[in-house]
Amino acid sequence: MRGPMEHQVAIIGTIADTLILPLFEGTNKPPNRALVGLSRNAQSQVKGAFASEDFDGKAGKTLSLWDSECKVILLGMGKSDGLKENNARDAGAKIVAGLGKTHGKNLAVRFTSGWKSNQMIAFAEGMMLRDYKFDKYMSKDEDDDDDDTPYNVTFQASARHQEQLTAGCNRAAAITTGVHIARDLGNEPANVLYPMEYASRAQAFAKGKGNLSVTVLDWDDLQENKMGGLINVGKGSEHKPCMVIWELNAKAKDGPCPIIIGKGITFDTGGISLKPGAGMDEMKFDMHGSATVFGLMVALHGVNHKGHMMGISCMAENTPSSTAYRPGDVIDTYSGKTVEVLNTDAEGRLVLADGLWKAGEFNPEYIIDLATLTGACVIALGHEASGLWSNDDELLERIRKVASDSGELAWPMPLLPAFEKQVTGSKIADVKNLGERYGGSNSAAAFLKQFVPEQGEGDDKKQYPWAHIDIAGTGWGTSTNATVAHGATGVHVRTLVRLINDE
Ligand code: BES
Ligand code: ZN
Ligand code: ZN
Q: How far, in Å, is the centroid of ligand 1 from the Cα of 247?
């Protein structure tokens, strides 16, 4: 597999195998510093492109020019004033998507007039994010189009941008590492990545890092703790379930802390309520919530986050067998509430029920769970936005905002009493794991709400601020997501870094 992109920040000067010139609309000649270091031939080609109006800087337009020393890609960015970070990020990602063997591995990106530091950083981040491949299981031969050498990119800008650009690119690189790890986990097939393998990888990552600890509740611990959600969903598989608890900066503990929970179904066959065969392979991504938690821990550690925060990954494999749970079973959960299982394919909410209740033991400031929870959410929002539910308007708005700023939309969805009624209407247990046919992502959220822990006493008792993010449609590659070719997206690692680290 190719290593991560290497990068430097420098003032405008040297050229490379390929020079990328992202340029704004509205001039008929190249900006002053754009052509520094280029050969006469390359300079006259660029000037000619401007003069002939073959290149006009309109957003998305590209022109590639060939020179024996340095290829040049002119990239139109549209108007400089209106360039949003999200668009700059996508433009950077698209440039990387279009690179081939002939462009070489040494790249220079030159930001000239009109560019602001935050836009440059977003462009660089887009390049880093898109530079990802999951090809570890592919045999390589000598004629392969690509080799394993990572790109080496120099981001060039004027002296006054150096400090901010350097810090921003380093931060983007650290966060990208987390996003790529989340993608690796999502893409990893289920014969390789099963619950305890996730736990070992978490422990391996935490090893030697003084401010990060990982605690694993294994099969025996789950029994001791009566975590019936995890136990029942996972008991049909030879690969037993577990809960992985992450803690960053325990020493900085001074009051409540954010807790992020991930659904980690390493494979979802549906269990006894077996899924249809077509497309079932995709259900290896059913642990993307937990992949995002892992990537988030890596990213927060990488950006040197100082605050106390925790993660909880609820890991199980949902598969039919003679020891599997079945429709009609009534199970206990960690909360003490009983659940009538009406469909074993609605398993995510059961493992999350235990994770949510566990979070109540750690003095949460707020609790956010991420889950590839329902096909109904994909029907509602397609692959364009995650569904977002919350019992706290302020928390919902904060998440909506940082998700939008990150280019990872999270769309508010209704947490209505009517949906709660659907899941609390069991004749023989406290809750049932299935609502009515329509609005299935809302009844799933309403189910989770039954397991959100409370704070305070007596009349003051109320649930901790909690949000649920359904990533069933956004967890894997979509043609409209420029930052990823295909497969797992690593969605919401960046959103949550903004939420937790930027405030
Ligand atoms: N993992 C699936 C949800 C899913 C579906 C994720 C498609 C990504 C793409 C989940 O466990 C599930 O099977 N949900 C059922 C719930 C139903 C039985 C109430 C669903 O969505 O059909
Ligand atoms: Zn399922
Ligand atoms: Zn599932």
A: 29
Choosing from 340, 345, 347, 443 the residue with most ligand 1 atoms within 8 A of its CB, the one to mutate for a pocket test is 345
DSSP 8-state secondary structure symbol assigned to residue 7: E
Q: Which tokens go with 59?
A: 């957003």
String of DSSP letters for 202-227: HHHHHTT-TTEEEEEE-HHHHHHTT-
Is it the case that residue 430 has pLDDT exceeding 80? yes
242-248 vs 152-156, strand pairing mode: unpaired
Residues 6+ apart with CB under 8 A from 386: 377, 403, 408, 409, 410, 411, 469, 470, 471, 473, 474, 491, 492
pLDDT for 246 equals 99
Q: Give the burial class of 163: count Cβ atoms within 10 A of its Cβ; 0-12 exposed, 13-18 middle, 19 or more buried.
A: exposed
The fraction of the chain above a pLDDT of 90, given in percent, is 94
At residue 182, what are phi and psi to the nearest 5 degrees? -60, -40
Q: Cβ(370) to ligand 1 under 6 A? A: no
CA of 275 to the centre of ligand 1 (A): 9
Query: Rounded to the nearest 5 degrees, what angle is found at the Cα of 468, between the Cα atoms of 485 and 364?
Result: 120
Give the pLDDT of residue 145: 61
Question: CB neighbours (10 Å) of residue 275?
Answer: 16
